[in-house]
Design a protein that fits this description.
Elements lengths: L1 H29 L1 H10 L2 H4 L3 H10 L4 H31 L3 H5 L3 H6 L4 H32 L7 H28 L3 H19 L14
């Protein structure tokens, strides 16, 4: 019953999540031929002094188009879309898991049910975990037929491993947000804490000398 209620609460958000990921993926895949031609002419990445941007630019502007396309998909499908949107979705869903129950005065009702607290926790968690992870696999799988229209291909096993990595990262944020939702009473406060943490971590990642201390280095 608890899992069913949680699923009904998050299913429409999950559908919107799928649509957002797909809408972000299709343009960058379909425009690849024009983008690749521009990258071959551009010297922008070589002139930048930021090491990780230079390496990124070197990967997506390779003379071998198949290699360049693989790097482009890695950057656009994972580094940009699933990690950023997936993190945002994890925070959005996780903030209300328990804090919303307190605000609506239904938290005591949950605890009064004849089930253990660990069971309540699990039944609230797994529907949300499916919502933040399954779309990553579904949307990135559609990148394979979209790539065929460009007469290019994506390696299925490596794409699956990338999805597993991205899904694990979103689960990390979901778990962290869910924990805060348990210990912090106000939903808005949970969102503010996790949001501030994510912004600080991204800022650290973009600063070369302290980048090793950023959680986003995992992506």
């Amino acid at each position: 019953m608890i899992a069913g209620k949680t699923w009904r609460e998050v299913r429409m958000v999950g559908l919107a999540y799928i649509l957002i990921l797909e809408m972000l993926a299709i343009p960058v895949l379909m425009l690849w031929p024009e983008i690749y031609a521009d990258l071959q002419r551009s010297t922008l990445f070589r002139s930048l002094g930021v090491d990780w941007i230079k390496r990124l630019g070197s990967g997506i502007s390779q003379r071998n188009e198949e290699v360049a396309y693989l790097n482009w998909c890695a950057v656009m499908l994972f580094f940009r879309s699933t990690n950023l949107v997936g993190t945002a979705m994890s925070v959005l869903i996780g903030t209300g898991l328990f804090a919303r129950e307190r605000e609506s005065n239904t938290f005591e009702f949950l605890l009064a049910r004849p089930v253990s607290r660990s069971s309540i926790l699990w039944q609230k968690f797994w529907p949300c975990a499916l919502v933040v992870t399954v779309p990553i696999f579904l949307v990135n799988a559609t990148a394979i037929p979209w790539s065929w229209t460009l007469e290019l291909d994506l390696p299925k096993w490596e794409l699956f491993l990338g999805c597993v990595h991205a899904a694990s990262f979103t689960l990390l944020f979901l778990t962290m947000t869910m924990y805060l939702s348990i210990v912090v009473r106000v939903q808005a406060h949970v969102a503010a804490i996790v949001g501030a943490f994510a912004v600080i971590q991204i800022g650290i990642y973009l600063t070369q000398r302290i980048r090793p201390y950023s959680l986003f280095r995992l992506v």
